[in-house]
């Protein structure tokens, strides 16, 4: 009996020891994965909080600078000289939507004209003498969020979403720029997503802090210039996914060979079903293809170029949108391979046509991640070396949002332009670029975002933005391309303002290159042909 008990005891000890040896390394790996996931997400949240805070500071700095110019002007408020100065400040500012003279809470005259505009009743009187109108009503528009900063009888009207325009593919992320003197009952003006004012208390006297509140991982950063803070909050629900990725690398290392192999097989099976693995598989299996949207010379109506647009149809027939797979490629480090595939497809589709039509150009979109490294230049060098396409045929389009390393982007852009490749800023007006931004990047062309084209001829507050953008681009001698042109009235307006090129459903939807080539060689004027389709689309 004693031997039986002893054997059972030893068996139990052996089993416990085996379980301990089996479970201890995965447990330690899981703890490390948890720490690593938190640190990674905290760094990401801090990055966005700093970015929002910096943009909010720049918005206030530009507003006070414009107000100071008006206050120091020798002209009387609303005199013609001051109105001209208001328009100049508005045109050259990145953030100011309107600047004008205010009295009794009403804008009496501004860079937009002499139409009075009440600023609303939500007023914060800051200790530094500023008046902040957190919710400026916009007549006839309940979706546009505006705020205003007043001092010395002048006011700058600002779009509250501009500091929050952080390019991100993180669902559920919250961003805010908060004045530290705001009352607890005052509604938030410059925020997106859920923001808890109690988060500011965790900042205390520190410059920045990260913490969790049960639902979010929060980062708060204090402005070095103004009594304000930038806030970014990531859902804690995202942490398990990040932790799991790290744990899958560490846990198998501490397990016996058989369990490690089983875990590796499970991991492989899981990855095979993931979209990230499907993306790599799609590259291997040539599931990507190109469509091309015609670019038309507005004065002649002739098709003179095309924008190359990447599409992904999986082997199952499912179409995945670029708004999904481009951020995924950036996150998983496959964006350079994806860009290489774009250049291969463009070369395959267009080289014979371009050899016969050297004046035709093809615009290729490049990720902002590509702009921060040298391989993108090597990819274009390889394409040009094959001789099917010359540099004059190419336009590289980059979005103004999301470029965080300006110096690296400037280097890559300079290298592309040195080879004769034109560079265009895409979706201009939707990010935070301005005059100094464009001058520092030294680009060749500017593409006006479709949101501003849609406002042409409407009563939307942005209906005057197009003329300001055109004036700025003309002063800088930049070629202009209007995106999203859908009506003849929009085309007429752009033509009157001497915009050179346009694209949109008025001229044609994205289509195979053979169809675009046929349009270009037909000599047909495209606007009448597509006007009916555009009107009903």
Give an overview of the whole structure.
The structure is a single chain. The protein has 15 helices and 21 strands. With 537 residues, it is of the alpha+beta class. Helix 1 crosses helix 3 and helix 7 runs parallel beside helix 8. The relative contact order is 0.09. The C terminus is likely disordered.
Write the layout of secondary structure elements.
Blueprint (H helix, E strand, L loop, with lengths): L1 H71 L7 H13 L3 E8 L2 E5 L6 E2 L4 E3 L5 E8 L2 E11 L2 E6 L14 E6 L11 E2 L15 E5 L3 E7 L5 E8 L3 H12 L6 H17 L1 H10 L3 E10 L5 E11 L5 E2 L1 H11 L2 H22 L4 E5 L9 H12 L7 E6 L6 H13 L3 E7 L6 H7 L3 E4 L1 H5 L10 H11 L3 E4 L5 H9 L4 E2 L10 H10 L3 H11 L1
Parallel strand pairs: 14-16, 16-17, 17-18, 18-19, 19-20, 20-21
Antiparallel strand pairs: 1-2, 1-7, 2-3, 4-5, 5-6, 6-7, 8-9, 8-12, 10-11, 11-12, 13-14, 13-21, 14-15
How many strands appear in the DSSP assignment?
A: 21
Strand order of the largest sheet: 13-14-16-17-18-19-20-21
Principal-axes geometry comes out as: flat
Profile the largest sheet: 8 strands, mixed, barrel
Helical/strand content category: alpha+beta
Low-confidence stretches are 260-269, 528-537
Q: What is the multimeric organization of the chains shown?
A: single chain
Mean residue pLDDT: 81
The amount of beta strand, in percent, is 15-25%
Gyration radius, in Å:
28 Å
Number of helices, counting only DSSP H or I runs of 4 residues or more: 15
Distance between the termini: 88 Å
Portion in helices: 40-55%
């Amino acid at each position: 009996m004693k031997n039986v008990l002893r054997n059972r005891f030893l068996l139990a000890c052996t089993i416990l020891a085996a379980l301990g040896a089996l479970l201890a390394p995965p447990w330690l790996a899981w703890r490390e994965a948890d720490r690593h996931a938190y640190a990674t997400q905290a760094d990401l949240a801090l990055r966005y909080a700093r970015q929002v805070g910096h943009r909010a500071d720049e918005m206030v700095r530009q507003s006070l600078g414009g107000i100071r110019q008006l206050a120091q002007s020798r002209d009387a408020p609303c005199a013609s000289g001051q109105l001209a100065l208001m328009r100049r400040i508005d045109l050259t500012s990145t953030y100011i939507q309107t600047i004008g003279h205010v009295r009794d809470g009403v804008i009496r005259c501004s860079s937009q004209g002499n139409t009075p505009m009440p600023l609303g009743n939500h007023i914060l009187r800051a200790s530094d003498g500023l008046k902040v109108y957190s919710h400026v009503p916009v007549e006839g528009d309940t979706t546009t969020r505006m705020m205003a900063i007043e001092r010395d009888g002048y006011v700058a009207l600002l779009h509250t979403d501009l500091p929050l325009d952080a390019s991100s593919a993180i669902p559920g992320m919250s961003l805010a720029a908060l004045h530290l003197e705001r009352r607890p009952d005052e509604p938030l003006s410059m925020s997106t997503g859920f923001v808890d004012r109690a988060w500011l208390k965790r900042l205390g006297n520190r410059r920045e802090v990260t913490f969790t509140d049960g639902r979010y991982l929060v980062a708060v950063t204090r402005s070095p210039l103004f009594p304000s803070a930038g806030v970014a909050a990531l859902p804690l629900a995202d942490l398990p996914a990040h932790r799991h990725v790290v744990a899958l690398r560490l846990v198998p290392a501490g397990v016996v060979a058989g369990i490690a192999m089983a875990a590796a097989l499970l991991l492989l099976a899981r990855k095979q079903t993931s979209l990230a693995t499907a993306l790599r598989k799609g590259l291997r299996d040539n599931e990507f293809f190109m469509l091309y949207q015609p670019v038309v010379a507005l004065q002649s109506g002739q098709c003179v170029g095309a924008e190359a647009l990447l599409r992904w149809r999986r082997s199952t027939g499912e179409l995945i949108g670029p708004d999904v797979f481009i951020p995924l490629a950036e996150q998983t480090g496959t964006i350079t391979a994806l860009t290489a595939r774009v250049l291969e497809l463009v070369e395959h589709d267009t080289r014979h046509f371009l050899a016969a039509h050297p004046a035709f150009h093809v615009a290729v979109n490049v990720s902002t991640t590509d702009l921060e490294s040298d391989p993108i230049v090597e990819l274009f060098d390889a394409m040009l070396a094959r001789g099917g396409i010359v540099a004059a045929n190419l336009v590289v389009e980059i979005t103004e949002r999301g470029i965080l390393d300006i110096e690296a982007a400037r280097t890559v852009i300079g290298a592309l332009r040195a080879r004769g490749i034109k560079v265009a800023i895409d979706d201009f007006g939707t990010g935070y670029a301005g005059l100094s931004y464009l001058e520092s990047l030294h680009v060749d062309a500017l593409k006006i975002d479709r949101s501003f084209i849609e406002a042409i001829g409407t009563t939307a507050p942005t209906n005057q933005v197009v003329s300001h953008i055109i004036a700025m681009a003309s002063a800088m001698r930049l070629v202009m391309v209007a995106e999203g042109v859908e009506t003849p009235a929009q085309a007429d307006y752009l033509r009157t303002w001497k915009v050179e090129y346009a694209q949109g459903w008025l001229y044609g939807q994205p289509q195979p290159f053979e169809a675009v080539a046929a349009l270009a060689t037909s000599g047909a004027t495209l606007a009448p042909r597509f006007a009916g389709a555009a009107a009903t689309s």
